[in-house]
Design brief:
The structure is a single chain. This protein is mainly alpha-helical. The chain is 59% helix and 0% strand. Bound molecules: iron/sulfur cluster.
């Protein structure tokens, strides 16, 4: 795939996943921030399972500080790093009340001052809530963009730097969601659905690997 194919790539992803949005369960920006924080090293499915119950008790930051940290741990103990995550959920609720009057900050600079909110978390949060022009390149997005040969890079960080100049700002937040759905349901690490893939004839991985083992 060449740079000139980028509009085709972006538009085809939009067609494949027309209603692309995060699959995390939430009812407010606050709950989304907490869900993203919990999703580190855990699947959306695991986090959603916990939060369908937990979020009945955690609707606002003030609900968080009314819980004991031990109670938060009880709610979320089926997901990885639940001790750290529970402590950070509690601290985050306190900071949101004291520093932001119960609101959620809207800039990366402010968001990353919250416990366990890295640039990735901040970008995902702002892409979903503010339609901000960010694509977070994790290992999966890095894999897909290298497979189709839109980039030829060694790390997600390198891919991130490269593609931010490739796609128009207008496309970024939509692309963030469509790319996640593409690697999750179509171009999986193992057994990608190459036979029904609209990018097959432009894909380096298909040409160099899949077609040779058929
Ligand atoms: S042809 Fe296969 S490897 Fe290439 S993008 Fe499509 S699903 Fe992924």
């Amino acid at each position: 795939m060449y740079k000139k194919d980028i509009p085709f790539f972006a538009e085809t992803l939009n067609t494949m996943f027309p209603d692309a949005k995060t699959e995390l369960y939430y009812h407010s920006k606050f709950q989304l921030l907490i869900a993203i924080l919990m999703s580190a090293q855990a699947t959306d499915k695991q986090v959603n399972k916990v939060n369908r119950n937990f979020f009945e008790f955690l609707k606002e930051p003030s609900d968080g500080i009314e819980l004991w940290v031990e109670e938060i741990k009880e709610f979320i103990n089926s997901i990885s790093f639940f001790n750290n995550k529970a402590n950070n959920i509690y601290k985050t609720c306190g900071i949101l009340i004291e520093k932001y009057q119960n609101n959620i900050p809207k800039t990366i600079e402010e968001l990353i001052t919250l416990p366990w909110v890295w640039i990735k978390t901040a970008k995902v949060f702002l892409a979903v809530t503010e339609d901000a022009p960010y694509i977070w390149v994790d290992t999966h997005v890095h894999r897909v963009l290298n497979r189709v040969w839109l980039v030829n890079t060694k790390s997600p960080l390198e891919t991130d730097k490269k593609i931010s100049t490739y796609f128009s700002k207008h496309n970024h937040s939509m692309l963030h969601n469509t790319l996640v759905l593409f690697w999750r349901y179509h171009c999986m690490a193992r057994k990608p659905k190459c036979e029904t893939c609209p990018f097959q004839d432009k894909c380096k991985y298909y040409k160099n690997v899949i077609s040779k083992i058929k």
